[in-house]
């Protein structure tokens, strides 16, 4: 079967650049939206040029020019969007409604993967304010996709390893301490940690896979379903030293969110749901509308938590 042509929107982003690399590595003709707004952002331009050198095609376009989006979409079979959705960086999830309109107008796209790549928003109706905005906005985009009858795959990638393992699951930290750590309650709630390069590899695997059509694909590498305490133990083994541990109760943590900057509050609410509630692991994947990536693609040799953490030694 001929491999689909892919357009990556947000290809210079934290996840997007990995999607570009994975798409090229898996042999897809790969197009990247080059937005005029990036202007003289030399880092982004250099990154785009390096992708071009590796065989990607750069397509000019802008979210302020609908026809340019339609023209870009018409070049490909599959569109993957990795537009920003982390408030402490930038949150542009609803801009995707323009992309949905463009895909609808172009009429040729066989699969659209919107910018999701986290907690499944469909399971977060109960999420707390203000963090729920991420899930609510992602659901608005899903509704538009489904109303337009656009074939889709939603990728629920759980915790990006760089944020969560880097900080031993502590918000606001991305380098693991060699001295101390605070635990969410008893630290025994399970979460799921995925190397961002593996997220990209699994995502690209889904695009020509009929088993992923109109499905939610959860990335749950079995060895990486661990509690915060287990993550800390792996780190302690690697550095050959026990960390000093303190604990924050659920009530204390919730109280600590009040009065913070809005963007911080959004992030802290996400940590609350992951690390106290266990929202990533407290449900079963149904096997019909929902599938698990490491089961579908056992050939992917995913990175274990221990191997990921070696980089900080
Ligand atoms: P980034 O913050 O790295 O941004 C990605 C890209 O979005 C940018 O490079 C840019 O692409 C595009 N963008 C930003 N602002 C605008 C704008 N105003 N107009 C048009 N495009 C814009 O995103 P991430 O990689 O951090 O996030 C991608 C997805 O992953 C999100 O859905 C996010 O929620 C999710 N995520 C999940 C995490 C987890 O732990 N599960 C952690 C972090 C993110 P360009 O300039 O190339 O066009």
TrEMBL record:
Domain annotation NmrA-like: ranges:
2-309
Write down a Pfam family by its short name.
NmrA
Q: Does the keyword Oxidoreductase apply?
A: yes
Tagged with keyword Cytoplasm: no
According to its UniProt entry, one GO biological process term is:
small molecule biosynthetic process
Which Gene Ontology molecular function entries are recorded, alphabetically? pinoresinol reductase activity
Keywords, alphabetical: NADP, Oxidoreductase
- InterPro entries to which the protein is assigned, alphabetical: NmrA-like, NmrA-type/Isoflavone_red_sf, PCBER-like
Description of how the protein assembles with itself and partners: Dimer.
Task: Give the family per the record.
Answer: Belongs to the NmrA-type oxidoreductase family. Isoflavone reductase subfamily.
* Name the UniProt record assigns to this protein: NmrA-like domain-containing protein
What organism is the protein native to? Carya illinoinensis (Pecan)
